[in-house]
Amino acid sequence: MARYFNGKEVELLAPAGTFEIFKTVIDANCDAVYFGGPSLNMRMMRKGYNLSYEEVREAVLLAHERGKRAYITVNNLMNEEDLEEAKRYFAFLNEIGPDAIIAQDLAVFPLIQEMNYTNIPVHSSVMMNVHNLEMIEAVKALGVSRIVASREMDLKTAEVLQAKSGMEFEYFVHGDMCTVHGANCLYSSMLFGNSSNRGRCMKPCRWDYRVKKDGYLYPTEYPLAAKDMYMYESIPELIKSGITSFKIEGRMRDTEFLLMIVNSYGDAIDRYIADPLGYNREAGADTLHKHRKRDFTTAYAFGKPGLDFINRRYEGTGKFYSTGKVFSTPTAERETKEERVLQVKESLHHAKRERPDTSIPQITVHVNTVEQARAALEEGAGVIYLTGDVFQPDRPFGREDIEALTADKGDAEIVLGMPRMMNELQMEQYHQFLSAGKEFNHYGLDGLLATNIGAMYKFQSVGLPLIADFSLNIYNHMAASFYQDHFGISRINPSLELQLHDLTKLLRHPEIPLEIIVHGSPIVMYLEHDLYANAAEFEPIAEEDNRFVDNRHLVLLTDKGENPVYRDAAGRNHLALAKELCYMPILKELYEAGVHHFRIEGKTYTTEQLRSLVRLYRQASLNLDSCGRLYQSMAPVYAGFTLGSLQFGHSLELELTEAHDIRIRDGAGR
């Protein structure tokens, strides 16, 4: 089955969560169905959902018998255990021949290439967050045949990028949305140990927050809770923009609800193709409105939606609509406990290098201003990262700033960072700056901090070393090696979501030079959505100062704490941890496991606060046996200290003991 409009294919892509639902939906008015197997996909929270191996096999056969397509989601970030499962799974998928897999983790590519699996086409998941031409070209070079466009991509941009690249585009047209850029929400991991990038999001975005700013409290209710996507009345614009596949969200939805949505969109597409001049956009829309779960939005399809993006209908029930179960309530970030510190040390001991390096570890510092950079240099920092996402009211680093810093850097290195997400204008600006810089010894720069695949692809030939930032979500050794081999990455900041056993296992690969963020309040939500608009839209209900940050910064408040939200020079919002990540007690163990770069996220500190932190960590680097004493002397600037995702996950020693016990019981240990 195929639909065409002026020679352009139009595919309606429906979801299915179980095999029973699939068998019904595949016969609905759609062209393709996507679904997940028993593991490695982003919908792992509902028991009994996803398909078994044999159901996946039969689903592909049933789709092909009907002339339709079957796409399989393999869109998790994968830990080391997942890689072993993926090897078995990909052998199976290569045998049954789905029309494509939908993938997030770059480890997918070496897994397919090493085994020479030629029967597994790859589509890039929305969690790859493909949002500029360079990213499209980068994944095309890896063999990707279709991208699922970033949720923040408007249709005009999609039309231009599709025309320039020739890439197939898939676009979400209906269903559950998220206010945070794809794969850039780490908060569920920090709070619960449940990663949104591994299919277990606990949806802290749906909590009832209040907003504080400028000393006032605002009645914002659910400022992060997005409405459901609704493009039913915009089918002509979708087709004109060059979107091939119209994707409906809903793998956790039940049969009757899905059939209503799929058949509504299918019938509307057919009506438009049959009679584009007499097409009535609104015909049938009342059915979708009547059965909606949340209110509707066209999101970013026609430009930034502002506060109209935010839902109020049925919000705050604290339940998944698909199951009726409570997903989470406001929860405090975990405080660092001595017992957990000992468990972390114990686990890291299993990654200790047999031949330890004798060099002094370097302190690297991510800064927001020239003043912060100078203070960090004066206190002995080895590497300064000049952020590409400068928080207001400060201004982005310009050539004069960079040349002044590099002239005074001494033995230290100055590395230029890039925005986490880069639109075409930003990519062009960086290209002009870096290309012109070749005539001026790169302005004295020593490297680039790469935040997205497109930037690495575009600037790997500039002549400066590339360092992978944590926003790339590197979760396993195969992905890390892939970044090294294909993009020339010299050092890697792994995903902040790595739990204890996952980090320990990654550290056991000595061929991968790792840098670890050891202090600061990292950004755990990166949003195009502007929360600051709330302070302009609503009347304050009370006066209340921020507890830990200047009143000029917005704060999201629950009864469990307050999280600062910083707005950058481009208007994007960055939600930070309420507490400070602090790895001072485990620096020695990290160093012995091969980590020789300790990073401070310094952007949110005053210059003097940052100066004190760099001084402390520099002292620790010179005498790692002093870390315990120095930790005892430290007082948090914000709401306390946390180990972040290292609060979660068992120690590797426990895992090794359990595996040994199993081998003994099975007779393999004799």
Automatic annotation (TrEMBL):
Q: What SUPFAM superfamilies does the record point to?
A: Radical SAM enzymes (SSF102114)
List the Pfam families: Peptidase_U32
Stored InterPro entries: Peptidase_U32, RNA/ubiquinone_mod_enzymes, rSAM_sf
Q: Which residues form the signal peptide?
A: none
Question: Can you name this protein?
Answer: U32 family peptidase
Q: What is the lineage of its organism?
A: Bacteria, Bacillati, Bacillota, Bacilli, Bacillales
